[in-house]
Amino acid sequence: MSTVPNVPEQSERFEQVASDSFAPLRIRPHKTTDGTSPAGTLRSAKPGQVLVTRITGGPCTVLRTRSLIRSGDRELVKVALYGRGRAGVEQDDRQCLPGPGDLVVYETTRPYELRFWDPFDIVVLGIPRTLLGPHTKSLAARTASAVPTGSGGGRLTATLMRDAARDLDACTGSGGAHLAEALVSLVLSALAEQPVAVCPTDHLAERILSHCLGHLSDPCLSPESVARAHHVSVRYLHKVVQQRGVTLASWIRSRRLERIRRDLTDPALADRTVSVIAAGWGLLDATHLSRSLRAEFGQSAAEIRKEAGTDRRPGRGQSWRLEGGHVPR
Asked: 44-194: what CATH class?
């Protein structure tokens, strides 16, 4: 998106662009010594369901007030990577002063205030709350807290966010869903490395769900195997996970179905059968897979592929060379 010109009436236009991108906001430019209101730029792309936005601008205050919040607004968890300029973030009775390279989380479902005392440059991920599932609760405990990215998962997160913001056009290609998943996973990893004041069962729940994400392809993944890996009883494991409002079996099932659906839409995997894709995510019996996909997403496996243009079966717009009278499966 082009730069918003540096004239007063264009400040309102920049506010509208930012509001349309995320949720309704008020942006109050700070007057400079010559009486002008600095301009800003906002460029974004949407790999999968995640919005990647690079924002630059001059000194200003950004407000998401209670009066602006409506039931129909997008419910986003915003993860900002700060670049140059002094800044402050306030939400949920917490405040922080992030420095260059720090990550900060804030949510559109509750009021927040951002202050920029200098010209700034930030990269913001807009992640739908529904995409985070049980992790939303732990992120809510980290709002308005600066997380350094100098090492470990934080450094990887910052690198990928910067690279995505530099080449926004590349974010919307066929690998967009994979990029979105990588961004969300790295954000969760970076934040999990930082201590936060939560109860012990929250820490255990985080470890359990992270373990399950890393073992979705294992057909032997089960409450029993997860309990053994964390040295707890199956009963206690269910109690811990249910505090997140889910059952472990349903959570694993939903995560597997999400990845199967993603792979069904991937042109690079168009030659793989539905059964092979399902087996790759630990579902060895795909008898009722289409029914499960329809219940979860409103479409069967065949309908998902047809809509994505990845249905390579004979008679679906693709030519096949038959060998020995057999049609490839």
From this structure: mainly beta
